[in-house]
Amino acid sequence: MSKAGKQMEYTALEKAFAGVRDLLLITPSKVDSGLDFNFRKQLREKKVKVQMVKNSLVQRVFEAQGLKLDEKIWRGTTLVAWGADSIKDLSKAVDGLIKEIEKKDPKAKDRLKIKTGVADGQPVSMATALTMPTRIEAIGEIIAMITGPASWIAGALTGPAGQVASQIATIAEKKEEPAPAPAPAD
């Protein structure tokens, strides 16, 4: 490939992966056109993009964006999958589809292998990517962590004051009993 051709492809990859922080790297082996078409089509329906890339060029693009991956990952053919709302959604979509393909066709086992995942620019294993919270889930957990202790503090402050107030109200509601009459003197 000519230098101008490589530069054009590099520029296209830069544009395609600009701002992408969550992605999966997949190795296809012995994938026929039907499997490839169905794989891409079903992922497209889930708003996941898939692109086969030239390892040396995409490695340079990712390094320019601050993403350094192990050299072993760049061996063999590479499909890059990105999109969805989070790494968790992306991982579930790709993993579920691969398992569905393998279930339908036992011969398709190991034709699509996930090399690694990248979550917010950091390499992660597939198991970690599947369990990472989405952005909304993480925000919810943080809010719960903040409001939990605050509610305990509010309860601690209002609890004793409420008890004292109820005791005062109970005492105020008691009717005064008339004093017993003095015994007659003989």
Describe the structure.
With 186 residues, this protein is of the alpha+beta class. The protein contains six helices and five strands. It has helices spanning 3-16, 33-45, 55-64, 87-104, 126-131, 135-173, and strands spanning 23-28, 48-53, 78-83, 112-119, 122-124. A five-stranded antiparallel β-sheet has the order 2-3-1-4-5. Helix 1 (3-16) packs across helix 3 (55-64) and helix 2 (33-45) runs antiparallel to helix 4. The chain is elongated.
Order the strands across the largest sheet as they lie in space.
2-3-1-4-5
Strand fraction equals: 15-25%
CA-based shape: elongated
Task: Characterize the largest beta sheet: strand count, sense, and whether it forms a barrel.
Answer: 5 strands, antiparallel
Task: Decide which structural class fits the backbone.
Answer: alpha+beta
Q: Give the helix tally.
A: 6
Overall average residue pLDDT: 83
Task: For the record, give the distance between the C-alpha atoms at the N and C termini, rounded to a whole number.
Answer: 132 Å
Say how many strands there are: 5
* Rg, nearest Å: 32 Å
Q: Roughly how much helix do the residues carry, as a percent range?
A: 40-55%
Q: SSE order in H/E notation?
A: HEHEHEHEEHH
Q: Regions with pLDDT < 50 over 5+ consecutive residues?
A: none
Short description:
The chain has 186 residues and is of the alpha+beta class. It contains six helices and five strands. The chain has helices at 3-16, 33-45, 55-64, 87-104, 126-131, 135-173; strands at 23-28, 48-53, 78-83, 112-119, 122-124.
